[in-house]
């Protein structure tokens, strides 16, 4: 049932509305709305019940284990939410004077400083509103750097084939063409291919480390040198920072720019698809190009740094100060973790991933890179299972839903066939991991004994498998009255 | 350990299973030289109580003000149920709904969101949100350029929000797309046909029309839309969603309607919160569906023919198309769209109309009575919705500082953005302002302005406004 189908003409919920509707007799008819928008006419209780019931049709971290690779679905502390939603924080207008924002700016400034420390970079800007916007900012800074040196023949961005799709898409938004670099047999970026690819046209390299194959790039410093020697800059995609938080600082590896996903590593909520937050950190040479505003602390007060101070900045990426409320949650979380807690994040995320990998290997699952340590995630390939039983990675993923577990990331990275990318995060207990292992074992047995059961899963969700071809062919994106 | 549940026994048995002696061993593939010793700038952990106390103190330090600033972010009443529902763990802590069968709640809600936004803007379809209004305008410009095929220039009036213009420029310029300014009419504050004449016969991808514009002034949207279409351009309508409870929807502008409607969704349930998180909305005509950026939810059926919802048209998106995607956007602002949907369901048609009417009436009252104060005048003659520009013979920064001392955020100083306007203040009174609030504003305005006209120079307050917005003469 849609909210519109609950609606009845003339039903009004006036507890939420102003008491009167003053006549706007100064506005002529040709500027006025002639029709009524399709908004539901329901009571407050109808609406509350409807959306509460809808919420119950979702999996979420608060209700289910969510081993989604490269998404870092860890517990979102409720305290951080409460702290960010204090009434004074919520009520403050973004253009109110800085004198009346010293409290919120103090939090943001300290978050900036903490992120500088964990990334090992010289400067941080908090404004990008998601990882992809952080990537855009990073690549735009690389471009601005080359342009400032009149080095304008650099038109190509190098991206490993295992990278998230946002990497090549962000490079294109910055006006670059993309060249893919293949992966070697061990899951590292192919060094020879990288050497062959660089040249005077190279603007830079975008690298995710640990990679989306779940391994730490062993030759990361060589890669760095190859690109730098060719005159390119290096971009570190921090999507998987959770694996090395507090243990390795990307700045120490010589990278020029990094973005961090606060909705992953700093445990701000995913919200069913955002809001995220993707701060960027830079080395000394990119400091002048940081996106604005950033926060400075001078003579005992906090202020926003703008284009006046940073005339070479790549500019503004949001209407105001990025996703401030998300930044406050990340700040609160960082303070509750402290320095030791941050290292523990990497320790236990890595322990959980390696334990799951070891147990699944023992249970007969094929691990894509069994000779390697898992970072905070690893890949299972079901190519063998598919050949034997016809059961695919997608089928296993759907069957997991029936067993009360969210599916891992499927069919990504694309270079491993029939893959499940599994990331447990540090906040899951051994009991949960053991239950997940047991569920996967059951599914393996089912795939051999009764493959149809797995191929037609899920069987217990509000709906069964959806016809996404029909969804794309016969577009139904808005409801219309019958 | 905060947020980690492992017992010593767990750790030992897990290490035994892996065949590692210690957790340290699990990092043995990382070159030794790259391992960091410690963090220098992260203080020791606070427990929830201590962190809460720290945050409470900082929140109280910032205090609360009677707010008359709008300029792209507006204070509205948010029904209590909105955030109680949005912060339910099932919405708050869910991922992007890739696993449709386990995400029907979020997916159906987003389908309802798309329906409400498309109807509100009078367009055929909507996406499932973008980051914010400013970056949303950039996405609309990119979309128009893709759709137009030949032109890479877009006409953007200077009466469009100055920060939105900056953000759009920052996001599109690397692709060789140029924003060409169209001046506003100094008398009315609107974008008039005369200013557009010079652009006739040239190749532009689109005209952006903000309604109401940054000054709060209403544009002659029909005339502007028809002009742009006659020139072969697309029309991008940048609208305030609350105003659509009263003003003509972009889909009805002119004889053919705008092609794309975009805007800042913050007035629909998002707290001001120092600038975010908010959300952008983007709606368009059906023909442009495959040019849209971002997530889109579609209704379909499952294997048993039962209706259900899933993400659709994913072939436009970065995780499928990579370098050929319509945008690099991945995560959007799902939770804010969730809040907006509940917000609109609670308001309904009548509620939205009342909020729009009350905002308009309050600002009208404020503007009319402000003009009764000696030395205060409206800058523009054009009709306005819920924001208005006033002027007086006193530096705006002084007036704002004096207001702030009385607990009032008096508006936005326009002098750094539009120096040609002199001492210009942009003021907004939404439905949250009572008559008493407005009287308080007016009383203080009268007191401050009159003291200046008779008082000695030394009573003037420190002129440097310290808001970042003020520090930028660029527009």
Question: In short, what is this structure?
Answer:
The complex is a heterodimer of chains A (482) and B (475). Chain A is α/β, with parallel strands linked by helices and 482 residues long. Chain A contains 16 helices and 13 strands.
Key features of this structure:
heterodimer; A: 482 residues; alpha/beta; Aspartate Aminotransferase, domain 2; 13 strands; globular; B: 475 residues; Aspartate Aminotransferase, domain 1; 7-stranded mixed beta sheet; 4-stranded antiparallel beta sheet; 15 strands; disordered C terminus
Topology:
The complex is a heterodimer of chains A (482) and B (475).
Chain A: H1 3-6, H2 44-55, H3 78-84, H4 87-91, H5 102-119, E1 123-125, H6 131-148, E2 156-160, H7 166-173, E3 177-181, H8 191-197, E4 202-208, H9 220-229, E5 233-238, E6 257-260, H10 262-265, E7 280-282, E8 294-298, E9 301-305, H11 324-362, E10 366-367, E11 378-381, H12 383-389, H13 393-402, E12 409-410, E13 419-422, H14 430-449, H15 451-455, H16 468-473
Parallel strand pairs in A: 2-3, 2-4, 4-5, 5-6
Antiparallel strand pairs in A: 1-7, 6-7, 8-9, 10-11, 11-13, 12-13
Helix pairs in contact in A: 3-11, 5-11, 6-7, 11-14
Chain B: H1 8-18, H2 48-62, E1 66-67, H3 80-86, H4 89-92, H5 104-121, E2 125-126, H6 133-148, E3 153-157, H7 162-172, E4 178-182, H8 193-196, E5 206-211, H9 221-230, E6 234-239, E7 260-264, E8 280-284, E9 297-301, E10 307-311, H10 318-321, H11 334-370, E11 377-378, E12 387-391, H12 396-405, E13 408-409, E14 412-413, E15 424-428, H13 435-454
Parallel strand pairs in B: 1-13, 3-4, 3-5, 5-6, 6-7
Antiparallel strand pairs in B: 2-8, 7-8, 9-10, 11-12, 12-15, 14-15
Helix pairs in contact in B: 3-11, 5-11, 6-7, 11-13
């Amino acid at each position: 049932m849609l909210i519109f189908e609950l609606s009845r003409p003339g039903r009004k919920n006036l507890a939420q509305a102003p008491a009167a509707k003053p006549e706007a007799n100064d506005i002529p008819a040709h500027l006025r709305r002639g029709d009524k928008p399709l908004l539901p006419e329901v009571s407050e209780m109808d609406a509350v019940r409807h959306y509460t019931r809808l919420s119950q049709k979702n999996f979420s971290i608060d209700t289910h284990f969510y081993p989604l690779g490269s998404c870092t679905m860890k517990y979102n502390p409720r305290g951080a939410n409460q702290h960010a939603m204090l009434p004074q924080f919520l009520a403050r207008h973004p253009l109110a004077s800085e004198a009346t924002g010293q409290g919120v700016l103090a939090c943001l400034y300290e978050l900036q400083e903490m992120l500088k420390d964990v990334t090992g970079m010289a400067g941080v800007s908090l404004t990008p509103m998601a990882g992809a916007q952080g990537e855009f900012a990073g690549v735009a800074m690389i471009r601005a750097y080359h342009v400032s040196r009149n080095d304008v023949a650099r038109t190509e961005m190098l991206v490993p084939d295992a990278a998230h799709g946002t990497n090549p898409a962000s490079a294109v938004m910055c006006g670059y063409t993309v060249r893919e670099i293949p992966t070697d047999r061990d899951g590292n970026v192919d060094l020879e291919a990288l050497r062959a690819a660089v040249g005077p046209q190279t603007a830079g390299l975008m690298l995710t480390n640990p990679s989306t194959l779940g391994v730490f790039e062993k030759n990361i410093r060589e890669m760095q040198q190859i690109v730098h020697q060719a005159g390119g800059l290096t971009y570190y995609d921090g999507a998987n920072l959770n694996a090395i938080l507090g243990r390795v600082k990307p700045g120490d590896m010589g990278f020029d720019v990094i973005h961090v996903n606060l909705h992953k590593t700093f445990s701000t909520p995913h919200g069913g698809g955002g809001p995220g937050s993707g701060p960027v950190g830079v080395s000394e040479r990119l400091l002048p190009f940081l996106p604005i505003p950033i926060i400075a602390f001078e003579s005992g007060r906090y202020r926003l740094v703008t284009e006046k101070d940073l005339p070479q900045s790549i500019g503004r990426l949001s209407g105001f100060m990025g996703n401030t409320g998300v930044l406050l949650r990340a700040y609160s979380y960082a303070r509750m973790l402290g320095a030791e807690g941050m290292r523990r994040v990497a320790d236990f995320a890595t322990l959980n991933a390696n334990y799951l990998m070891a147990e699944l290997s023992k249970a007969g699952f094929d691990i894509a890179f069994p000779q390697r340590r898992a970072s905070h995630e690893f890949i299972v390939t079901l190519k063998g299972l598919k050949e034997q039983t016809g059961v695919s990675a997608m089928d296993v993923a759907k069957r997991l839903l029936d067993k009360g577990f969210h599916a891992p990331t499927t069919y990504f990275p694309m270079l491993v066939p029939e893959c499940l990318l599994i990331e447990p995060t540090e906040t899951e207990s051994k009991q949960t991991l053991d239950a997940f292992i047991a569920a996967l074992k059951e599914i393996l047995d089912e795939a051999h004994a009764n493959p149809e059961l797995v191929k037609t899963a899920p069987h217990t969700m509000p709906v069964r498998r959806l016809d996404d071809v029909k969804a794309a062919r016969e577009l139904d994106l808005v409801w219309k009255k019958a | 350990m905060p947020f980690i549940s492992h017992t010593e026994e767990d750790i030992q048995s897990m290490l035994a299973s892996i065949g590692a002696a210690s957790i340290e061993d699990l990092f043995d593939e990382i070159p030794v030289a790259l391992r960091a010793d410690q963090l220098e700038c992260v203080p020791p952990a606070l427990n929830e109580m201590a962190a809460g106390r720290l945050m409470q103190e900082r929140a109280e330090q910032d205090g609360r003000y009677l707010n008359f600033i709008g300029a792209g972010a507006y204070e509205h009443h948010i029904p209590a149920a909105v955030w109680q529902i949005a912060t339910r763990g099932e919405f708050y802590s869910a991922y992007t709904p890739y696993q449709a069968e386990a995400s029907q709640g979020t997916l159906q809600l987003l389908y309802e969101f798309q329906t409400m936004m498309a109807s509100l803007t009078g367009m055929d379809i909507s996406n499932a949100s973008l980051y914010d209004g400013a970056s949303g305008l950039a996405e609309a410009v990119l979309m128009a350029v893709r759709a137009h095929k030949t032109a890479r220039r877009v006409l953007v009036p200077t009466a469009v929000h100055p920060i939105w213009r900056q953000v759009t420029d920052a996001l599109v310029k690397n692709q060789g797309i140029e924003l060409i300014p169209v001046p506003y009419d100094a008398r009315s504050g609107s974008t008039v046909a005369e200013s557009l004449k010079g652009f006739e016969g040239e190749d532009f991808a689109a005209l952006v029309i903000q309604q109401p514009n940054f000054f709060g002034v209403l544009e002659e949207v029909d005339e502007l839309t028809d002009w742009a279409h006659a020139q072969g351009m697309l029309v991008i309508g940048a609208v305030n969603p609350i105003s659509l409870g009263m003003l003509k929807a972009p889909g009805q502008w002119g004889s053919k309607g705008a092609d794309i409607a975009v805007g800042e969704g913050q007035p629909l349930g998002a707290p001001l919160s120092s600038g975010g998180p908010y959300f952008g909305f983007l709606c368009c005509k059906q023909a442009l569906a495959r040019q849209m950026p971002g997530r889109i939810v579609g209704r379909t059926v499952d294997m048993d023919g039962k209706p259900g919802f899933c993400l659709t048209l994913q072939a436009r998106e970065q995780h499928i198309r990579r370098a050929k995607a319509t945008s690099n956007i991945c995560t959007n602002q799902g939770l804010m769209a969730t809040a907006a949907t509940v917000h609109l369901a609670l308001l309904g048609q009548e509620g939205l109309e009342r909020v729009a009417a009350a905002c308009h009436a309050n600002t009208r009252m404020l503007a009319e009575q402000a003009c009764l104060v000696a030395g205060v005048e409206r800058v523009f003659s054009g009709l306005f919705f819920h924001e208005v520009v006033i002027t007086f013979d006193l530096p705006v920064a002084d007036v704002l500082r004096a207001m702030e001392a009385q607990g009032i955020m008096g508006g936005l100083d326009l002098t750094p953005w539009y120096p040609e306007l002199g001492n210009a203040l942009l003021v907004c009174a939404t439905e949250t302002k009572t008559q008493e609030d407005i009287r308080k504003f007016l009383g203080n305005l009268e007191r401050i302005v009159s003291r200046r006209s008779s008082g000695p120079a030394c009573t003037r307050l420190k002129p440097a406004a310290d808001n970042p917005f003020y520090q930028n003469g660029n527009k």
